[in-house]
């Protein structure tokens, strides 16, 4: 991991992400990887919470967009869509954001969230505006 990747990983994970138990393990403009425990992040019926999925997608995509934006610039999310495909009740969820578009004023990421067995739980897309 480069110094820049380490700084991004440790600087931009918010207190909210910390409450989720989100662990970001890799950050670059092209790809961001993280995971969170199911325990403590469920809805009343014991299933992984869809809001936790959205939060993880927003965080990972934003970290990638900020890595792309570079020094003196920042990225802000402008649109997030999430398709929830299945759920889980235990273990960890694993997410990967992959760049779809890296432009001068915008960045778009495809984010997949999977369970410990690699089954796709949710798929989404985050669009970010890059600001000076």
How many whole angstroms does the radius of gyration measure? 14 Å
SSE order, as H and E? HHEEHEEEE
What is the CATH T-level topology?
Thiol Ester Dehydrase, Chain A
Strand order of the largest sheet: 1-2-4-5-6-3
Number of helices: 3
- What is the makeup of the main sheet? 6 strands, antiparallel
Shape type: elongated
The CATH architecture? Roll
Helix proportion: 25-40%
Percent range for β-strand residues = 35-45%
Based on secondary structure, the structural category is alpha+beta
Q: Can you identify the CATH class?
A: Alpha Beta
What would the average pLDDT be, to the nearest integer? 93
Q: In CATH, what is the homologous superfamily?
A: Hotdog Thioesterase
What distance lies between the first and last C-alpha atoms, to the nearest angstrom? Answer: 26 Å
The number of distinct structural domains comes to 1
Q: Flag low-confidence runs.
A: none
Characterize the structure shown.
The chain is an alpha+beta fold. It has one domain: Hotdog Thioesterase (Thiol Ester Dehydrase, Chain A), CATH 3.10.129.10. The chain has helices at 3-11, 15-20, 50-69, and strands at 23-27, 31-37, 74-84, 92-102, 106-114, 120-131. The chain has a six-stranded antiparallel β-sheet with strand order 1-2-4-5-6-3. A hairpin with a 5-residue loop joins β5 (106-114) and β6 (120-131). The longest helix is centred in the middle third of the chain and has 20 residues, at 50-69. The protein is elongated. The mean pLDDT is 93.
